[in-house]
Amino acid sequence: MWRRDPQSGRLEGEFLDIDFAGNAASLGARAWRVGTPDELRQALQEARRVKGRPCVIVAEVEEYRFLPDSGACLDFGV
Q1: How many CA atoms lie within 13 A of 56 on its CB side?
Q2: Which of 6, 19, 42, 48 is the most exposed place for a label (fewest CB within 10 A)?
Q3: Which one, of 35, 23, 30, 40, lies nearest residue 61 by Cα?
Q4: Which residues does residue 58 pair with via DSSP β-bridges, in sequence order?
Q5: What residues are paired with 12 via a beta bridge?
Q6: DSSP one-letter code for 27
Q7: What confidence tens digit (pLDDT) does each residue in 10-29 have?
Q8: How far is CA 21 from CA 1, 55, 68, in A?
Q9: Which of 14-18, 42-46, 52-56, 69-73 is predicted with the least confidence, judged by mean pLDDT?
């Protein structure tokens, strides 16, 4: 269960194991899972060649790396 830390204002709780690439593929997208800069470069090259369907590239991020607030909807530390 998620809760907001009263001092930091951050959401706290357990991370959910969600298969984002599998979910995207189940909805018709071409999906890649990447874990290295080389895999990301390869996925980007392949995604540029895909026509007629959305592309999703899933990159793992550090679960507990917090960034300064940018005002954006989501911030990810990589």
Answers
A1: 16
A2: 6
A3: 35
A4: 33
A5: 3
A6: T
A7: 778 777 788 999 999 999 99
A8: 24, 10, 27
A9: 69-73
- 9 to 12, 25, 70, 77: CA distances (angstroms): 9, 34, 14, 18
Amino acid at 21: A
Reading the block at residue 27, the tokens are 């909805």
**In a 3-state reduction of DSSP, which class is residue 4?**
strand
Residue whose pair of structure tokens reads 């470069």 in the numeric block? 41
Residue with tokens 């550090």: 62
Q: Do the bridges between strand 55-59 and strand 30-34 make them parallel or antiparallel, or are there none, so unpaired? A: parallel
Task: Name the residue type at position 30.
Answer: R
Which tokens sit at 48?
Answer: 């540029």
